[in-house]
Amino acid sequence: MVSSSSSSSSSSSLAKSARCAFAVVGIFAAFSYFAIAQEDVYKKTYGGARFAATFFVLTVERGVNVVFALCGIAAFGGSGVRTPKGEIFKSGASQMFAMAASNEALRYVSYPTQVLGKSCKMVPVMIGGLVLGGRTFTMAQYAQVAFVTLGVALFNLAADSTKSTGSDSAYGLSLIGLSLVMDAVTGGLQDRVKKTTKALNPRTPNAKPSVYESMLYTNLSGTAVALVLALWTNQLTTGVSACMEHPALARAVLVYALASAVGQNFIYYTITSFDVLVLTTVTTTRKIFSTVYSVFRDPSNALNPTQWFGCALVFVFLAYDAAMSVLARPKPPAPATSARPARRAAKSIPNPTPATADADATAAVSPHRARASSSRAASAPRRRAASRR
Questions:
Q1: What's the confidence (pLDDT) of residue 342?
Q2: Per-residue pLDDT tens over the stretch 127-164
Q3: What is the domain count for the chain?
């Protein structure tokens, strides 16, 4: 029994590690291509100018994600449990506000401020989990977030230290702050969704929304927010006109949206199967892993010492977290020995009371003496009757 429980625990841990590796590889591959598609939309020129209707693109992207989610539910079904659709809807809205504020802030803050804003997303996600999600974290997790954030910031800042820093406006800094607050709200709401789902389904163990249910309601609200922003800034009209005028731009926007939809399959798989903080760690460190891979593939893409130091911080603490996860696996129960059960049972009987001792002594009398005693007891009334006569 011990060996079977130990083997089942080991196989479960291996299966979980395999699922996590699958999610990480999927996110890295999908969003590496997503970055290329994003450059095709925003870095190329169409009609002599770059495309700047960001909210229009976000509306299309979220709309395509909704279609993918509906197809996923139709193909694989839902979770079959009650889900807090309102909380999922709110997390999608806060996520879109965070993205909109971050994109808008890039035009009003300096390059180092942009880097710090992009690099420290793990911190607000952790704070949101504490405040809104009711989560608790270990000291090791706090250390991991602090040092991974520091490593990513050092890596990104050293990547282009010659870039003009510019200046920070109060408006840009407020947008960066709003983006981080919305990241915290999104992370906390996503943590709360899991707890609320379990509370709504007390008779269903491990109740949680399916991947495509989370993807559907999150992107529905994101589409609504992006559409309102696109209408408010008149980007919906300009975006549609530009795509009609330049078919290459329309194809680039569609490819961008499809790449996002593929990536979001892995995003919501990670959120549903693991943790929001795990997802943020993966997405925050993705650029480092991609850059290091490019260095090994092409040695001419050298990193400077500060970048290597940032990489070391990230890799060391990610490896430390993985090692702690392995060491924290539940140990199998101690073996239960069954040697000499009769003697143990005898030792467990308490000392007999006098009445018990008498009863035991009577029960231990030989059968012959027992019959003699019963015959004497039966003849005693006849002898008393004869003496009275």
A1: 46
A2: 777 777 677 777 777 777 777 777 777 776 776 555 55
A3: 1
Q: Note down the domain range covering 252.
A: 16-138+166-273
What single-letter amino acid sits at 194? Answer: K
Write the burial class of residue 335 (CB in 10 Å: 0-12 exposed, 13-18 middle, 19+ buried).
exposed
Q: Is residue 255 part of a domain?
A: yes
Report pLDDT for 33: 85
Q: Could you tell me where the beta strands, DSSP code E, fall in 33-72?
A: 45-46, 49-50
What's the angle, vertex CA 196, arms to CA 59 and CA 280, rounded to 5?
Answer: 50
Give the angle 136-148-188 at the CA atoms, nearest 5°: 35
Q: pLDDT tens, 230-281?
A: 999 999 999 999 999 999 999 999 999 999 999 899 988 887 877 666 776 7
Name the pTM for this structure: 0.66
Tokens of 191: 């943590």
Find out whether 189 and 320 touch, Cβ atoms under 8 Å: no
CA gap 389, 387 in Å, rounded: 5
Question: Is 225 inside any structural domain?
Answer: yes
Q: What is the DSSP letter of 109?
A: S
Distance CA 291, CA 136 (A): 33
Token pair recorded at residue 257 = 């949206």
Residue numbers in the chain where pLDDT is lower than 50: 2, 338-349, 352-374, 378, 385-389
Q: Does any domain span residue 321?
A: no
Sign of the CA dihedral with 144 first, then 146, 151, and 152 last: positive
Residue in the structure block whose two tokens are 């019959």: 371
Residue 328 lies in a domain: no
